[in-house]
Amino acid sequence: MSGAKGNPLIHPGPTAEEVCQQVDRILSSDEFHSPNRGRSFLKFIVSETLAGRSEFLKAFTIANEVFGREVSFDAQNDPVVRIEAGRIRRALERYYLVAGQADDILITVPKGGYVPHFEYAHDSRGAASPAQSPDVSQGIGSGNQEKASSGSRPSILLMALVMGAVLVTVAAVLYIAFAPALFVSRGPLSGRSPGEASEPKVVVEAFAGSGVPNAVEIAHGLRDEVISQLAKVDDIIVVADPSRTGRTAAAGYALQGNVQLDGSRLRSVARLVRQSDGAVIWANNYDADLRTQSKLAVQADIAQQISTAVALPYGAIFQADTGTIARQPQSGDWDTYACTLAYYSYRRSMNTHSHDTALDCLQRATQRFPNSATSWALLSLTYLDEMRFRHRLGTSSPAQPLELASSAAERAAALAPDNARALQALMLVSFFKDDIDKALQAGAAAYAMNPSDTEVAGEYGLRLAMSGKWQSGCELVSSAINKNAGPKGYYEVGMALCAFMRNDMKAAELWSRMSDLQYNPMHRLVLLSILGAAGKMAEAKQEQDWLAAHAPDLMNNIRRDITLRLQRPEDQEKFFNGLRASGAFIEPPRAEVGK
Predict the structure, then answer these.
(1) pLDDT digits (tens, 9 = 90+) for 507-532
(2) Cis ω on the peptide bond leading into residue 12 (within 30° of 0)?
(3) CA-to-CA separations, 472 to 69, 453, 461, in angstroms, rounded
(4) pLDDT tens-place string over residues 98-149
(5) Where is this region: Disordered (predicted)?
(6) Burial class (CB in 10 A: 0-12, 13-18, 19+), 486
(7) Residue 433: how many CA atoms within 13 Å on its side-chain side?
(8) Which residue, of 130, 209, 265, 392, has the fewest CB within 10 Å?
(9) Hey, how many other C-beta atoms are within 10 angstroms of the C-beta on 178?
């Protein structure tokens, strides 16, 4: 980058040489947590900007130049560039907060694009820094700052850091003063705001290191990564420093861990302890070889696995809490978290009673706490299930549930545009309303926020696949299954479809039989098409007889249900051909049969 020209977009500002030196400083710091791909991303966008080619910094260009994607790369439906940009932003924020506080040059990547921004942290003529400037308060209340000239206003990043530090200090003082009131037992809410103090609190204790001194450093870094991953989960409260409260036992769970090193071999042990009785409700070991992975990559990978296993839907916390809360008699006093548990309990059992319980609870929650985006999102998904799983739940009239689901999803997204469940609900509703572009946009946004969320990854993968993007979609579904996404049978039948579409009938049948065939009659319909395509007429006859006895409405409206799910006519026809080969009757298309 040394031969690059000065950035023509910023004047006055750092020279190209100063920017390049700052990039080298950042990349050499242990506090810049980014894998090799992210580092290449940062170097590329900086080099292109300094060379005067910032207008070419589009997702397609970056995907081709940095990630080696083919010319067929679809930026709309492949979120790899957006995800990496988000990681770079967070890595830069961490660097400047932890190690780069005294650096002279600030490098940021503003949201909404990939062009980096360069500026001095302090005025080069010795004037007061933005942190000391008497105009800071004016800048905060001066309207749309994004449209202001960068040379006539303080650094947005430093302003944010200063204000953030002030707010954190004030919050800490208030927190210490009122800590006893904040730690309340989880129980029925009575007039509190949505979700207030109802989600489980998880104390992330200090991770121990043993073997060699380097193990202590890795243990500290691993704990930081775990906290970062858990903080992305909307349904839990992460406590990083319980010592300030003196009320450690008030938290629901404690996450403990240690790191051991033996040469280049690393083993991390983690466990989740329920504070009320000291029971270990989850534990696991993670091994790595530091000769093949950097310590930063190892920390990020293990932290992601721990977060997924502990805190995401169907993880250890929700399984433990669901067993005690979701079985309680339904009442109007249930809080939003209890309704969240009722929803996941229903999705595991998928029966009429659990569906009605979750639906009633979520309806009450949204009435009582109308600003709870998560409750609106889960209510949308519960309504939607009355349409897409109607043969399992015994519901009818798909039009009304879809409209109710759509209204609830739009409400959730309006309340919290960055809520993963709200975006997931918006994705599914849009998909079944045949607005595929909107569905995939919502799915990409949800996945970019937290790729570790197995439910989002699995559902987004299925939408990609069933809209015709089978390769990228099936890869996401496979990854979600490997991370124990649930309900497992739901995603296994998705993998059966993936194998079916690539003409691997052996794998398709195996995946289909692994899925819970009782979960949804649609699973058996998939198996019936696979058996028909494979020429296994005897087994196909058994499945057809079962469907005729248990899901006659499905067998009389096969086209309606398949066109609702598979978006491309060629994929629909392939599926129908398998059914025809099995002897099933496929009604001819009609103008009134829509999606």
Answers:
(1) 999 999 988 777 689 999 999 999 99
(2) yes
(3) 12, 17, 7
(4) 788 889 999 999 887 889 999 988 644 333 333 333 232 222 222 333 333 3
(5) 125-150
(6) buried
(7) 21
(8) 265
(9) 9
